[in-house]
From TrEMBL:
UniProt keyword Lipid biosynthesis present: no
Keyword match Transferase: yes
Cross-referenced InterPro entries: Glyco_trans_1 (IPR001296), Glycosyltransferase_grp1 (IPR050194)
Listed GO MF terms: glycosyltransferase activity
Protein name: Glycosyltransferase
Organism from which the protein derives: Allocoleopsis franciscana PCC 7113
Entry keyword set: Transferase
Segments forming domain Glycosyl transferase family: 196-327
Transmembrane segments: none
Pfam families in UniProt: Glycos_transf_1
Length: 366
């Protein structure tokens, strides 16, 4: 008689979003897609879940509590010695005061904010908190408070890649959950259009200028998609590369994004910083689009060099150009298969469900 697998306890989850803008605005960066995908999949698996987010957020039909207040400054614009800054009527403080008030209705809080306060408050709360850290090391204050939490609550710090974990002194105490997307949103494209793509927040750490330079050198049209965060940076690029055949397509919904992304011959990823993961890499691969990425950060753990794209010497436009010339050696089906195997909502859902139940059971074991 087969032993029934122990039914996973249905968890009551409270997802607290990041405090830099409403879900669906693009201000929240990759966290918006990450939170949406994890939440959708955990509900599909029978867990109950509420999302706490800034007023004006969309929760794509999932239970949502909107909180008013002033946003946090973007952490990646701060220097390493930046002090902790919390504005008056802070939406971050208000979100976590709400979480404190309702915590006994839940088994686990999941924190998506890269901010000091949620980590500092963790010991003050009576239920466990899983912290999904969205970026690599940026400031001493954040490194310190995250290390405090991983020491006092082992196993509760989640990261998206080993490269991201390595930016912290406590790398080996982080749980790498990678990331995932709902493949049903991405349609495979076997015959690309004659252009390449670049997707991301338009800001210095994303290194857009290198992709534009490669477009100007090769004459291959470049479609740029993403949130225009730094206008001056963008204007400077247009001045520096007046002849590059580039087209800014705006900040797009997932559906509009994949309609353009799937037609690309390749996606260029040119991060200047250690990209924690690189959601856009798996979005492109899901459509069959090879990824040409600097061998740096999360994308270097996603792209199989020569199979689902190319990994090139960081910050080298020449190497980007060389890789573009080898594109025809890549089988677009191998790109889709990479995501199906490792980065589907199901694969990510398994990793997250296991992480959540490990944290909750550890509480039971105490
Ligand atoms: N800055 N202060 C702060 N808090 C965040 O949660 C945060 C951020 N900057 C960027 C960001 N989150 C997201 O774009 C991540 O996906 C990178």
């Amino acid at each position: 008689m087969p032993i029934n697998p122990t039914p996973k306890k249905s968890l009551r989850l409270l997802f607290v979003s990041n405090p830099i803008g409403p879900l669906g605005s693009g201000l929240g960066g990759g966290v918006e897609l990450t939170l949406r995908n994890i939440a959708t999949e955990q509900i599909r698996r029978g867990h109950s879940l509420t999302i706490v987010a800034t007023k004006g957020s969309t929760a794509w039909g999932m239970p949502l509590v909107e909180i008013a207040g002033n946003p946090q400054i973007s952490a990646q614009t701060q220097g390493r010695d930046a002090p902790i800054i919390i504005p008056a009527s802070s939406v971050l403080a208000n979100m976590w005061d709400y979480a404190r008030q309702v915590q006994t209705d839940y088994d686990l809080i999941v924190n998506f904010a890269y901010d000091w306060l949620p980590f500092y408050l963790t010991p003050f709360l009576t239920i466990p908190v899983a912290h999904l850290v969205s970026m690599g090391s940026l400031t001493e204050a954040m490194d310190g408070i995250i290390e405090q939490v991983v020491t006092q609550f082992p196993g509760t710090i989640g990261v998206h890649s080993l490269a991201q974990a390595e930016t912290f002194s406590f790398a080996n105490r982080c749980r790498c959950v990678k990331n995932g997307i709902d493949l049903s949103f991405y349609d495979f494209c076997a015959e690309p259009a004659p252009w390449i793509g670049w997707v991301g927040r338009i800001a210095p750490e994303k290194g857009l200028q290198d992709a534009v330079a490669a477009s100007e050198l090769t004459g291959i049209p470049l479609k740029i998609m993403g949130f225009l965060q730094d206008e001056l940076y963008w204007q400077q690029i247009l001045q520096d590369y007046p002849n590059a055949p580039v087209q800014y397509e705006g900040f797009l919904s997932t559906d509009e994004l994949q309609k353009r992304l799937r037609q690309c011959r390749a996606l260029l990823m040119t991060p200047r910083w250690v990209e924690a993961f690189g959601n856009v890499a798996i979005e492109a691969l899901a459509c069959g689009v090879p990824v040409i990425a600097y061998r740096r950060g999360g994308p270097a753990e996603i792209v199989e060099d020569g199979k689902s794209g190319f990994l090139v010497e960081p910050d080298s436009v020449e190497r980007l150009v060389d890789a573009l010339e080898k594109l025809d050696t890549i089988d677009r089906h191998a790109c889709r298969q990479r995501v199906e195997a490792e980065y589907s909502n199901q694969a990510m859902g398994d990793r997250m469900e296991q992480w959540f139940s490990d944290i909750c059971s550890k509480v039971n074991k105490l």
